[in-house]
Amino acid sequence: MRPPKYFRMTDYDRSLLPNPVLRKLEKEATSEADWVQTTGLSPGHPAWGIIYHVLLACLHPSGENTIVETGTNWGSSTIVLAQAIRDAGRGGRVHTIELDAANHKKAKNRVEKAGLSDLVSFYLGASEDVLPALARDLPSVRFAYLDGGHGVRTVMTEFEAIEPKLTHGALVLLDNTYPIAEAGEEARVSEALKQIVEQFGGNVVNLPFVSWYTPGLALWQRESLNLYEGLGV
Ligand SMILES: C[S@@+](CC[C@H](N)C(=O)[O-])C[C@H]1O[C@@H](n2cnc3c(N)ncnc32)[C@H](O)[C@@H]1O
Fold this sequence. Notes:
Elements: H1 20-26, H2 32-38, H3 47-58, E1 66-70, H4 76-88, E2 93-98, H5 101-113, E3 120-124, H6 127-137, E4 141-146, H7 152-162, E5 166-175, H8 189-200, E6 203-207, E7 217-221
Parallel strand pairs: 1-2, 1-4, 2-3, 4-5
Antiparallel strand pairs: 5-7, 6-7
Helix pairs in contact: 3-4, 6-7, 7-8
Bound molecules: S-adenosylmethionine.
S-adenosylmethionine (SAM) is lined by residues 40-43, 70-71, 73, 76-77, 97-100, 103, 126-128, 147-149, 154.
């Protein structure tokens, strides 16, 4: 792997964070050593704000707002997603998948403390196993945040599972786009984005200077010029 890069910010006004639990956890974080002890492997600021506001703006007034997250970790991003659903008041639910049992348990506790448990369903297992079956049962997917395993095969399995269920204007966010894999190593999110566009079309907006080890947060959306056709508003 190439050396990691770090663009997570630490010097900012904590009142920008959307939930008091995150504000408290983030209060003392001024370095990587701090934040891995507090909010886990989350992308931090300003990614949390981006995820929060983009989801807030993406939620459909009809209330058909199913959110999928892979890589719950300790629940920091789950809190951001669920808080956006709460604040928008348009209805919705987060379905979040985590591989590691200890992370899954910790995340459940954190989300409970954040007062958002009623908006979240937690799944324990590998996204490659859990998501295809889960997605088949979901009525649709309005928004997905893919931040579990970052190898190209995992990301493509996740994407292919949700793609048939994406509603008009749905967004898929992918963390860690910086191309860190070297020759001979499994390609990662940047390669998955190329394959997604080749196979499914759509557009990518990449924000290279957010997040950390490794940075880069991308937004993918299928629709390009037929922006309102089929949106149902
Ligand atoms: C970068 S962390 C996620 C951070 C979290 N989204 C946040 O922002 O707070 C990645 C998480 O994905 C989990 N993970 C790794 N591979 C996975 C897989 N195949 N399926 C589900 N979870 C996975 C790891 O155990 C880890 O907790």
